[in-house]
């Protein structure tokens, strides 16, 4: 069957119109080497992205394995959006200016591409979207007729002053595994997002986060935990049934070869989108109780704050056989003038018999002041002992972690009762940098501390009294 020139032109125009309406068709038309009809996961992602842009959601999180096109597809989305609406203003934030600039340059160059005989160009699809002469630097450029800059590329160390955006794309903020382990770095990125980037958004803005799920506390995790109306695109290289996401991009043989000698934490994060600190967490689970058993002993363990940034941690618990049942927790950075009466009040409330307070770095003075306050409250049953903890803290925490998980019970709603305490012990990692270890140190102290050796200590009214 012979197709005339007129028919060829009609077919071409139909493809162009379809590309204007459908994002995957646009990708397929402009980058057919990658966006193939049989790559169903790319077709699915493109539909998700189009639905996000045209829908009501404000946040989109994209987690995918490397080399599967997440950043490339986000760039194609920007091209398509600016073709449909040249008034949009888009900001890209990446780990550094080079990465964000590369993203912006790729989009700019596609829009500015010249017509080539026999090849469909961007201007064929969107003839009214053109780069403005004189305003086409790699990091900041404008479109004709927009009256303003349409694109700005920045980073946590860059600037966003004077630019407002309707669409924000944050891509690959974490440089390496060391940063994923560092709570301070992760928090700085969240602070940059809250204090700088969000302040540049305009009414009705949309935000896209593209990154590997390195850690629960990364920006993607922060968005998923703190905002409603979030669309989440999450693909693993190896599917739950053992098949590969796309054999054409990464087959099983190559996957095993690439990951054979790779750190397993990095494999989980990069290819399976399982945060490193989930696999590397010291405590994998915690036991809970709904009803307390009879109390054999009621005790307290307190770790005072060594430095100004440390937390005081004080735990009341009761023992039944060889298990420990947490009754109450104080976990705070408040000054000792506030924590001393608070700890004394908690001990009195829970009828604590024996209290052990670490005397390192001011702990002895803290213990003495607690005793004074206990007596003023009329509490004569709590026996306070201070002691020096000379063993290595990290070694104690690590070596006793299994015992903590097997023998310590928390109330069923403990994460709601003590959220800051729960956050720290649930995110403490076995290897890597932890910002604080006060909660884990105190919990370990509870487990290490056996029942009182003095058999003359007898229970009365759920408390110890001397006989």
Task: Describe this protein's structure.
- With 467 residues, the chain is an alpha/beta fold.
- Helix content is 40%, strand content 21%.
- It contains 19 helices and 17 strands.
- An eight-stranded mixed beta sheet has the order 3-4-5-2-6-7-1-8, sandwiched between helices. A seven-stranded mixed beta sheet has the order 9-15-12-11-10-13-14, sandwiched between helices. A two-stranded antiparallel ribbon has the order 16-17.
- Strand 11 and strand 12 (323-332) form a beta hairpin.
- 38% of the residues are buried.
Quick synopsis:
With 467 residues, the protein is α/β, with parallel strands linked by helices. Helix content is 40%, strand content 21%.
Q: Please state the oligomeric state of the protein chains shown.
A: single chain
Please compute the radius of gyration using only Cα atoms: 30 Å
* Count of individual beta strands: 17
Q: Ends: how far apart?
A: 108 Å
Strand content: 15-25%
Class from helix and strand fractions? alpha/beta
Helix content: 40-55%
Q: Compute the number of helices.
A: 19
The low-pLDDT segments are 455-467
Side by side, the strands of the main sheet go 3-4-5-2-6-7-1-8
Mean pLDDT: 89
Largest sheet descriptor? 8 strands, mixed
Q: What distinguishing features does this structure have?
A:
19 helices, 17 strands, eight-stranded mixed sheet, 467 residues, single chain, alpha/beta
What secondary-structure arrangement, pairings included, does this model have?
Elements: H1 5-21, H2 23-30, H3 40-54, E1 59-63, H4 70-84, E2 90-94, H5 97-111, H6 122-125, E3 131-136, E4 140-143, E5 149-154, E6 165-171, H7 177-181, H8 183-197, E7 201-210, H9 219-226, E8 230-234, H10 252-259, H11 264-272, H12 276-279, E9 287-289, E10 297-303, E11 312-320, E12 323-332, H13 336-349, E13 354-358, H14 363-376, E14 383-387, H15 393-399, H16 401-407, E15 408-411, H17 414-417, H18 419-426, H19 438-448, E16 457-460, E17 463-466
Helix pairs in contact: 1-2, 3-4, 4-5, 13-14, 15-19
């Amino acid at each position: 069957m012979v197709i005339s020139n007129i028919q060829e032109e009609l077919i071409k125009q139909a493809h162009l119109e379809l590309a204007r309406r459908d994002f995957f068709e646009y990708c397929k038309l402009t980058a057919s080497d990658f966006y193939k009809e049989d790559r169903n996961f790319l077709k699915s992602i493109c539909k998700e992205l189009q639905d996000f842009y045209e829908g009501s959601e404000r946040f989109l999180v994209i987690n995918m394995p490397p080399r599967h096109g997440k950043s490339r597809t986000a760039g194609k989305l920007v091209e398509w959006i600016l073709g449909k609406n040249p008034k949009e203003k888009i900001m890209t934030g990446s780990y550094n200016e080079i990465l964000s600039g590369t993203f912006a340059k790729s989009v700019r160059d596609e829009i500015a591409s010249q017509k080539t005989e026999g090849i469909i160009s961007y201007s064929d699809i969107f003839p009214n979207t053109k780069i403005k002469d004189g305003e086409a630097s790699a990091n900041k450029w404008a479109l004709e007729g927009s009256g303003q800059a349409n694109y700005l590329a920045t980073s946590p160390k860059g600037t966003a002053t004077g630019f407002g955006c309707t669409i924000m794309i944050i891509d690959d903020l974490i440089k390496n595994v060391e940063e994923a382990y560092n709570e301070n770095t992760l928090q700085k990125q969240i602070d940059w997002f809250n204090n700088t980037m969000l302040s540049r958004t305009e009414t009705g803005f949309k935000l896209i986060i593209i990154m590997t799920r390195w850690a629960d506390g990364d920006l993607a995790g922060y968005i998923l935990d703190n905002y409603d109306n979030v669309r989440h695109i999450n693909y693993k290289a190896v599917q739950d049934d053992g098949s590969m996401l796309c054999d054409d991009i990464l087959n099983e043989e190559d996957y095993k070869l690439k990951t054979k000698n790779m750190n397993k934490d990095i494999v989980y994060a990069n290819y399976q989108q399982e945060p490193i600190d989930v696999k590397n967490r010291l405590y994998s689970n915690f036991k809970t109780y709904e009803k307390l058993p009879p109390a054999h002993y009621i005790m307290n363990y307190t770790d005072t704050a060594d430095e100004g940034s440390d937390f005081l941690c004080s735990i009341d618990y009761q023992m039944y056989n060889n298990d420990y049942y947490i009754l109450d927790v104080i976990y705070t950075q408040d000054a000792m003038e506030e924590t001393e009466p608070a700890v004394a009040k908690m001990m009195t409330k829970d009828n604590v018999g024996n209290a052990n307070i670490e005397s390192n770095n001011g702990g002895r003075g803290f213990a003495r002041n607690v005793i004074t306050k206990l007596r003023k409250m009329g509490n004569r049953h709590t026996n306070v002992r201070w002691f020096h903890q000379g063993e290595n803290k990290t070694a104690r925490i690590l070596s006793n972690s299994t015992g903590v998980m097997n023998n310590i019970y928390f109330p069923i709603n403990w994460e709601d009762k003590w959220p800051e305490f729960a956050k720290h012990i649930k995110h403490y990692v076995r290897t890597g940098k932890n910002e604080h270890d006060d909660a884990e140190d105190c919990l370990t102290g509870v487990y290490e501390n056996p029942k009182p050796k003095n058999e003359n200590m007898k229970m009365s009214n759920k408390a110890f009294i001397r006989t």
